[in-house]
Specification:
This protein has about 325 residues and is mainly α. It has a single domain, classed as A middle domain of Talin 1, CATH 1.20.1420. It has 13 helices and 4 strands.
């Protein structure tokens, strides 16, 4: 029993580390390759802010392994984690001031999240509905590109300014990063995630069997905390650098991405029944914390008191899911 538990925890730890390292390498490599290929700064920013390969891969593997409730628990739990823990820790370190421009992004992310949330409350997400969620995400992305003309102009100007500053400060002999290094980072990141995904799913399944928790409860707590660790780290970094808008925008993008792409891909592989424990506890908590996030965005600031409240909310959520 003890050996099995230690093995499960070891797999969870190794899987989480591989997922985080793999995602970091992949995004760094993809970023460099995008610059080499001449991809616009806006495209690069959207990919780096919204792409959450570790959540998507974990949920897809869980679904393929015949553990769909683990997949949906991971989706819902990760969304709760990134709003409460990432935002809460950031506000505790340094009170946050949120630009009014984030409101529009918040509304769009909320509107596209309505469909997957409704499907989850209905108790099952079929394969056809999974495909629908992926289609909604494509439409959501296209809509953002076509309606954010001003953002395109601003980012292009910033990129031009950065290039001019770099030309003034760097010697003429400086060379751009070699493409093969970018390729190695991208491939290495994919390989690490490919290894980490099965490890974390296998560890979660073994842990659920040992301690007697449901797959949905494990996905909504332990797995989601591991896959949400990257956003938590971003929250701490954003607080130190006083870049709250980047964190809030990343949370909004990840929230919608998890519900549309992560859930959609998992459901496309295998129809997903929703664990009643997730429906009665984790899912309502996810909706409530998102509404709280909207209210905070509209108020324009997040104090240390609110940050502490969000952390306490996550602690209560963990206890409720585990003891249910």
């Amino acid at each position: 029993m003890i050996l099995t538990l230690l093995l499960a925890l070891g797999l969870l730890a190794v899987g989480t580390v591989l997922l985080l390292l793999g995602a970091d390498w992949f995004l760094d490599g993809a970023s460099d390759l995008a610059r080499v290929l001449g991809v616009s700064p806006l495209v690069l920013g959207v990919v780096l802010a919204g792409l959450e390969p570790e959540e998507m891969l974990t949920a897809a593997i869980a679904s393929a392994r015949g553990a769909p409730t683990l997949a949906v628990g991971n989706v819902v739990g990760t969304n709760v984690t990134i709003v409460t823990v990432a935002l809460g820790l950031s506000a505790l370190i340094f009170p946050m001031v949120i630009d009014r421009g984030v409101r529009r992004q918040a509304l769009i992310a909320t509107l596209v999240s309505i469909v997957p949330i409704a499907l989850l409350f209905l108790g099952i997400v079929t394969q056809l509905e999974g495909v629908l969620l992926l289609v909604v995400f494509v439409g959501y992305t296209i809509f953002l590109f076509r309606t954010d003309r001003e953002a395109v102009r601003r980012m292009v100007e910033l990129e031009a300014d950065d290039d001019e500053n770099d030309d003034d400060q760097k010697p003429q002999t400086a060379r751009p990063r070699l493409e093969w290094k970018s390729g190695l980072l991208t491939i290495g990141g994919l390989a690490a995630m490919a290894a980490g995904g099965p490890a974390i799913v296998e560890g979660a399944l073994r842990f659920a069997q040992v301690v007697g928790l449901s797959q949905g409860a494990v996905g909504a707590t332990i797995v989601s905390l591991g896959t949400g660790a990257e956003m938590i780290a971003l929250g701490v970094s954003a607080a130190r650098k006083k870049q709250s808008d980047i964190l809030v925008g990343g949370i909004l993008g990840s929230f919608a991405y998890n519900l549309l792409v992560t859930l959609g891909l998992a459901a496309t592989i295998h129809s997903i029944p929703v664990d009643p424990r997730v429906t009665f506890i984790a899912l309502p908590v996810m909706v409530v914390v998102h509404l709280v996030l909207l209210a905070l965005i509209w108020s324009g600031k997040i104090s240390r008191v609110i940050g502490g409240f969000l952390i306490v909310t996550y602690a209560v959520y963990l206890i409720a899911v585990v003891l249910d």
